[in-house]
Amino acid sequence: MTISTTARIHPLAFVEDGAVIGENVTIGPFCHVGPKVVLGDGGVLMSHVVVTGRTTVGRNVRIHSMAVVGGDPQSVHHGGEETTLDIGDNCVIRESVTINTGTAGGGGRTVIGDNNLFLACSHVAHDCHLGSHIILSNAALLAGHVKVEDRVIIGGGAAVHQFSRIGRQAFIGGMTGVAYDVIPYGMLHGNPGVLDGLNVVGMTRAGIERATIHRVRKAYKEIFEGEGSIRANAERIRPDFADCGEALEILDFIAADANRALSSPNRNKG
Fold first, then answer.
1. C-alpha angle 40-119-146 in degrees, rounded to nearest 5
2. 3-class DSSP assignment, residue 154
3. Confidence band, pLDDT 50/70/90 cuts, at residue 267
4. Is position 72 annotated as part of the catalytic site?
5. Is 144 a catalytic residue?
6. pTM here?
7. How far apart are CA 123 and CA 151, in angstroms?
């Protein structure tokens, strides 16, 4: 066990031999830290927090009461293999959040980036890969193998189907069922989820110029309202948007995995 001399550990907390506790870490009462856990500098475990498994937590991560971080994957295929969870810096993990390690068949790793906010009772399942500056609102649920890119917001009570991809700066409304991939900058509402235009508010807040937003809107309409299929339309218009990075981001996302169904404004269009 390696515990920094500047760490503050409540006498009613239990830190197992083998754990690595960084500088200025605070561990509150009734917390349990497993023997293969690494807690980065400046982290805070409030009280009644469990951090277990082969889990690495970055710097300045704040974990609130009743959260369970690094628990075994909730998969019938998990045979007890040792897998990992990696969490980046400056994340906030609120009450009763659960985040699982990976599975051997899914690459063995659950990975979470920096500056993410997980509100109460949200869940990140095995083998998920999350970017940075993401918000999971209360009771938002990610099934296994989900990929979420940077600056996505997922509303309260939303549920994301396994293996789904959610592109950068997409917005998922509360109580939405995400059955298919969501393009970057897309807005999804309903159950099952229907693409409802672009996240213009988020794009504006990110500093994207109005003229660029209009270009992306034009690309969006040609992709989803054109006469051909979504993928055929996306390939057809690519030369017209070669100078617009945000539009190309959407086109690249669509082209990246031809085996995945895409969320659209029309459930019957593929």
1. 80
2. strand
3. low
4. no
5. yes
6. 0.97
7. 18
Q: Is 126 a catalytic residue?
A: yes
Give tens-digit pLDDT for 211-245.
Answer: 999 999 999 999 999 999 999 999 999 999 999 99
The answer to whether the beta carbons of residues 83 and 101 sit under 8 Å apart is yes
Residue 6's pLDDT band, with cuts at 50, 70 and 90, is: very high
Strand order across the beta sheet in which 165-166 lies: 2-3, 20-21, 38-39, 54-57, 84-87, 109-112, 129-130, 147-148, 165-166
Q: Confirm if 49 and 62 have CB atoms less than 8 A apart.
A: no
Q: What angle do CA 63, 59, 202 make, to 5 degrees?
A: 75
Task: Tell me which residue range forms the domain holding 228.
Answer: 203-256
pLDDT at 268: 52
| CA 99 vs CA 8, 24, 94, 157, 214: distances in Å | 24, 24, 11, 16, 38
Residue 182 domain flag: no
Catalytic residue among 53, 70, 106, 144: 144
Cα 73–Cα 91–Cα 146 angle in degrees, nearest 5? 40
Last residue of a domain, one of 115, 145, 175: 145
- Helices of type H across the chain: 200-205, 210-225, 230-237, 245-256
Both 86 and 218 in one domain: the answer is no
Q: Is residue 154 part of a domain?
A: no
Place of tokens 């982290």: 43
Report the distance separating Cα 45 and Cα 61, nearest Å. 8
Q: Cβ of 209: how many Cβ atoms within 10 Å?
A: 11
pLDDT digits (tens, 9 = 90+) for 95-130: 999 999 999 999 999 999 999 999 999 999 999 999
Name the catalytic one among 78, 126, 129, 145: 126
Reported as a single tens digit per residue, the pLDDT across 176-217 is: 999 999 999 999 999 999 999 999 999 999 999 999 999 999
